[in-house]
Amino acid sequence: MPLSPEQEAEIAELRSAPQQTLRATVPGMEAHLYKAYPVLDHGFVRVIDYMGDDAAICQAARVSYGRGTKSVQNDEGLIRYLMRHWHSTPFEMCELKLHVKLPVFVARQWIRHRTANVNEYSARYSILDREFYIPAPENLAAQSVINNQGRGEALTGEEAARVLEYLKADSARAYDHYAEMISDEGQQGLARELARMNLPANIYTQWYWKVDLHNLLHFLRLRADAHAQYEIRVYAEAMCKLVADWVPFAYKAFEDYRLGAVTMSAQMVDCLKRMLAGEEVTEENCGMSKREWREFQGVIS
Ligand SMILES: Cc1cc2nc3c(=O)[nH]c(=O)nc-3n(C[C@H](O)[C@H](O)[C@H](O)COP(=O)(O)OP(=O)(O)OC[C@H]3O[C@@H](n4cnc5c(N)ncnc54)[C@H](O)[C@@H]3O)c2cc1C
């Protein structure tokens, strides 16, 4: 398990002392609170705190739209309406604070989502653990031949073994040198903030990440998508499960109107209408680029 004994003890202590509150709580989320869910070989994601629930989204919407929301009787219907019509601010009333342990190269993708608050483990102040992400054999894939940004078939045989050995040996060697450089036995010892620069991007880091539900769903739409890199997608998938237990109506609406939905260009809609009217629409007469036509085929087939 990726947690240290101290962290495990802290979680057990936090979970052993429930506190009474007048604030809205969600049983599904209370069950997750503080627990670490493993992701990749040493990573995890765990809920540190949350604010709000499905009702908080509706409460905010009813304040802002007043009588306009009266036609939607129940909370689920209102949330689905808000999601369908891109009303975003009611979803910002809910907040989630996570503790995430993740490889640095995943963190680099994750940090591009600027609408969150982050506090990261300091490798200037503390010594990084000897923990590196080494892909499972089935995830050790070759460069995709159709997608410059993706991966294809898993490597096999001697090549897979050699690559795995490189990853393990390079990580170990870099960490040995890191530890040796900062060690002060018989030498001054290089500052931690400098010694870390020889460490590879598969070393693990940790951070607290706090975000509102609107921006969290935006993150999940991009990172739980099949086009996202596997190593960040597995974090997004773990987070989707947490969100589903926290705000079930909002999560279902998100699945229906974002995750499972598609966006069509004006040309795509036009082609679809022509097809429904019985016209034979082809790549040649569709009025779209080759690539857009291919994407359209992906949507309708
Ligand atoms: C599959 C995939 C491939 C990618 N490939 C690359 C790549 O090759 N190279 C690369 O550099 N990035 C890449 N990215 C990162 C991507 O371009 C975004 O930076 C990242 O997904 C964060 O999205 P965001 O800016 O919408 O999110 P957030 O930063 O959370 O922002 C949310 C929304 O807030 C608004 N916003 C936030 N900050 C500002 C601002 N300063 N000004 C105006 N509006 C703002 C925007 O509307 C934005 O959509 C990739 C992402 C994905 C999912």
TrEMBL record:
<dbReference type="GO" id="GO:0032259">
    <property type="term" value="P:methylation"/>
</dbReference>
<keyword id="KW-0489">Methyltransferase</keyword>
<keyword id="KW-0285">Flavoprotein</keyword>
<feature type="binding site">
    <location>
        <position position="120"/>
    </location>
    <ligand>
        <name>FAD</name>
    </ligand>
</feature>
<feature type="binding site">
    <location>
        <begin position="109"/>
        <end position="112"/>
    </location>
    <ligand>
        <name>dUMP</name>
    </ligand>
</feature>
<feature type="active site" description="Involved in ionization of N3 of dUMP, leading to its activation">
    <location>
        <position position="223"/>
    </location>
</feature>
<keyword id="KW-0808">Transferase</keyword>
<keyword id="KW-0545">Nucleotide biosynthesis</keyword>
<dbReference type="GO" id="GO:0070402">
    <property type="term" value="F:NADPH binding"/>
</dbReference>
<keyword id="KW-0274">FAD</keyword>
<dbReference type="GO" id="GO:0006231">
    <property type="term" value="P:dTMP biosynthetic process"/>
</dbReference>
<feature type="binding site">
    <location>
        <begin position="112"/>
        <end position="114"/>
    </location>
    <ligand>
        <name>FAD</name>
    </ligand>
</feature>
<keyword id="KW-0521">NADP</keyword>
<feature type="binding site" description="in other chain">
    <location>
        <begin position="120"/>
        <end position="124"/>
    </location>
    <ligand>
        <name>dUMP</name>
    </ligand>
</feature>
<dbReference type="GO" id="GO:0050660">
    <property type="term" value="F:flavin adenine dinucleotide binding"/>
</dbReference>
<comment type="function">
    <text>Catalyzes the reductive methylation of 2'-deoxyuridine-5'-monophosphate (dUMP) to 2'-deoxythymidine-5'-monophosphate (dTMP) while utilizing 5,10-methylenetetrahydrofolate (mTHF) as the methyl donor, and NADPH and FADH(2) as the reductant.</text>
</comment>
<comment type="pathway">
    <text>Pyrimidine metabolism; dTTP biosynthesis.</text>
</comment>
<feature type="binding site" description="in other chain">
    <location>
        <position position="196"/>
    </location>
    <ligand>
        <name>dUMP</name>
    </ligand>
</feature>
<feature type="binding site">
    <location>
        <position position="89"/>
    </location>
    <ligand>
        <name>FAD</name>
    </ligand>
</feature>
<dbReference type="GO" id="GO:0004799">
    <property type="term" value="F:thymidylate synthase activity"/>
</dbReference>
<dbReference type="InterPro" id="IPR036098">
    <property type="entry name" value="Thymidylate_synthase_ThyX_sf"/>
</dbReference>
<dbReference type="Pfam" id="PF02511">
    <property type="entry name" value="Thy1"/>
</dbReference>
<dbReference type="InterPro" id="IPR003669">
    <property type="entry name" value="Thymidylate_synthase_ThyX"/>
</dbReference>
<protein>
    <recommendedName>
        <fullName>Flavin-dependent thymidylate synthase</fullName>
        <ecNumber>2.1.1.148</ecNumber>
    </recommendedName>
</protein>
<dbReference type="GO" id="GO:0050797">
    <property type="term" value="F:thymidylate synthase (FAD) activity"/>
</dbReference>
<comment type="subunit">
    <text>Homotetramer.</text>
</comment>
<dbReference type="GO" id="GO:0006235">
    <property type="term" value="P:dTTP biosynthetic process"/>
</dbReference>
<comment type="similarity">
    <text>Belongs to the thymidylate synthase ThyX family.</text>
</comment>
<feature type="binding site">
    <location>
        <position position="218"/>
    </location>
    <ligand>
        <name>FAD</name>
    </ligand>
</feature>
<feature type="binding site">
    <location>
        <position position="223"/>
    </location>
    <ligand>
        <name>dUMP</name>
    </ligand>
</feature>
<feature type="binding site">
    <location>
        <begin position="212"/>
        <end position="214"/>
    </location>
    <ligand>
        <name>FAD</name>
    </ligand>
</feature>
